[in-house]
Amino acid sequence: MKQNRLTQLLVNLPSAVRDAIRGKAEDIANSTKLRGDPLPLDWNEAAARTVSGEIEELLKRGAAYRNQDDEELTRTDRELAEDIQTATSRAGISNITRTAAYLECYEACPELHWAFLAHIVSRNAGWNMTDLRGSRVADMLSEEGKRATYRFLERSNALIFQDAYPQLLLYRKSRELGASQFHLLRYFSVSRFMRPFWERFWIDRGSALLTVGLIINEQNYIEQRVIRHPFYQRHVTEKSNFHLYSLSGLNQLIIPLREGTSVTRLAGRTVTDFGSLPARIALGKSLYAMLMGLGAVRSGAEAFARAVPHSGSRADYWPDIFTANKEEALTTPLQGSELLESETLPPGERLYSPKLLDAWGDTPYEPISREDWLKDTSALDGISAPQTPLLCDISREHRTGVLKTALAHDAAESIKTD
Questions:
Q1: What is the DSSP secondary structure assignment for residue 149, as one 8-state letter?
Q2: C-alpha span between 324 and 328 (Å, rounded)
Q3: Euclidean distance between CA atoms 297 and 303, whole angstroms
Q4: What global pTM score does this model have?
Q5: If pLDDT is split at 50, 70 and 90, which confidence band does 214 have?
Q6: Which end of the chain has less neighbouring CB within 10 Å, N or C?
Q7: DSSP state, 10?
Q8: Residue 405: CB partners within 8 Å, gap ≥ 6?
């Protein structure tokens, strides 16, 4: 039995390589079509220079700025801030509630482009979390490895929401009151970096500049708290299973595009260096330019987000390959063979991708340090106009990623003792 599985795996490899090559050519051709309907992001270079100058001035003022920010809040300010804190805690219970909250913000204020980008990225975080309990990955990692990786993904998702969601609500309250409330950013321990972006946005509603500011801020926010945290470096990012997780095609950020009643294409990018802060910022800007700067991507992504509630299961966007019902999942040990034979999988033979709450439930997290990450001018390097990548459509590349994971699963199965 063991020898037969290994033989079948070796037989499958040439077909998998050919599938990958054909898929890349198809994605390139479809990317050209997606890029055919560009939308202006209205990047304002003069405003970007002004904001950069204001941040440089804040850094020069240093302690004087911090002392000024420690002034007592008025009773009205405190009541508003406490209401926002309560709303943030309520909406931040899980990846499911956070993802929904981002979309609700975008629907209420379409000028908040970052909220929609965060909604899409948060969906991907949920899919990555449930992959750890799905049929492709569950057998390849130890229970300890799965739990550590889940905590890594969940903490990143939770921390970004904790920092960003109050900012979004402050803007909505400012719009309601007709007056800027961004002096309250300090109440939520938001970095000094963000106030110039919000004050500029209040003046000109420049969505692109604010989005870039938020991308830079949130990636810096999690850099020391998660990415460089000793626990996660020791138990996740420096572990071989984390690299297997990437090599197996689970490092793709996808944007499902819906037309009519189904998802027809997948836009997105592949994460090549998650450990690099500049690389993550560049990735965020690239995704933003694709999501909001290409008409076909924006309309398709909006249609998907509105029609399909986020559950964490990859069956949300690919029900012909995945199922959230374990009783209907594929049971054969050689998943790669099934995927090579057909574009889709029949009912009862699909890959198991559970709903997030079934896989992990809600996870409380430990107290979070509140110090300001802004220490020097290095963050200003990322303040530049987002550029749309040449490769936008990754429908076939994503399927190849799923196939690679299935083949990795098959390889693990083939070396097990019968």
A1: H
A2: 8
A3: 10
A4: 0.90
A5: very high
A6: C
A7: H
A8: 136, 137, 248, 249, 250
